[in-house]
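Standup notes
- DV: blocked on the single-chain target, sequence here:
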Amino acid sequence: MSRLAARAATPTRAALQRTHAAGPAALDVLHAHPRHLVLAALVAGLLVGSHAAPPVVLLCALAAGVLAARPPLALLVAIALLAGALGAQARLHALDRTLLPPRFGAMVTMQVVLLEQPRPVRFGHTALARLTAAPGSGERVMLRIGEDVAWPAVPTGAIVAVRGRLRALGPFERHYAVRGAHAAISLDAAAPTGARRAGPLGVVDAIRTRAERALSSGLPAPQAALLRGMTLGQDEALDERTREQFRVASLAHVLAASGQNVALLLALALPLLAWAGLGLRGRLIAALALIALYVPLAGAGPSIQRAGAMGAATTVAALAGRPASRWYALLLAAAVTLGCNPRASADVGWQLSFAAVVAIALLAPRIRHALVTRRMPEALADAMAMTTAATLGTAPLLALHFHQLSLVAIPANLLAGPAVGPITWLGMLAATLGQLSPALATPLNALNAYLLAYVGAVAHLAASVPHASVEL
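- DV (later): unblocked, structure below
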């Protein structure tokens, strides 16, 4: 009996030894990369600075310094964390500055710049806008567009005259506060002014409008809406049934501009730039310019900001002739997004985006190795590993925020995955040609129609499986 007990205890003892060794090993990795450690401390400061009291921030700085071990590095890490916390508080103070609360409850007539297309919600639509005149000039507000309000068909960036009651954001509208809104306007009426915002963002608006027309050329409305979602992250025009099917099938991520879009953009652009005769430096500079254009073109949400920052960091590393570090790029992306808006970490898209990248980095290589050793073809093992890792990494957040867990996520993504890249590439080419004329995009859209129908069918079939998702 004692021999059996000893044998049973041996694996347990070994597991405990590995677990105890994991902490020092992780610290050794951090100590070997001081730049990563300092940047991680800055990100930690940006995170805790917007939520924690000063004593907690000081405690975190002290703990970070202890983890750094070496005195000079410990001091630098503690300073970075404190700088991040102070920077977050200063940024929040600037973002929260508002002149609107004294006018809550009053009827107002204002002009606003439409920052996004209205999104369907229960009993109407909502949209994010920016005030153009005092009081509150430059402040963001949420527009609550009731079903009885005739909303004009205007593009993003248009200036709209609105009339309605100014009020505080409601309990179920607080996610707009994360996006910088200080108040809500419950509209009674809205009318186009014919004007649009100027400057660089006005140029982006014009490019987006031509791209939207191109992506709709020759396609039925449902497929055009799906193509705009997969290319530009615009899912507002999708009907509720299609949106629900993609959500249940765990395919909603293909409708939001994210890291996959930036990766596909670079994979399409770099060979074309090389074919055009540009050298390596020219191609990388052009890639940076494309990323800088695509991020605002796709709405500049937290997930696409993260993807743009990581893509830019990787491109700059290649331009400097240095090997790119995925973890450093990820930390840099976190620092950039949180520096712009310390509340970004409360955004579901931000959380899902970072969770997916971290899960792929940690789990995908191990899953792929396990599949390849079982003689699965490498291409299929790659797809299976990426899909499984991303699904596992995002599942807890999906369950937390949406109270559902998809049981068809992995097969649905494996089936739809091969078509996502070609759809996005054809859509990007169509949007580019559409800058000259929407008619030039029609042949590409006609080819894309078959792929769009396939992805739509996968979402429909996956969502139709009994118990496709579990309520939590």
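- Follow-up: Residues 1-23 have pLDDT under 50 and may be disordered.
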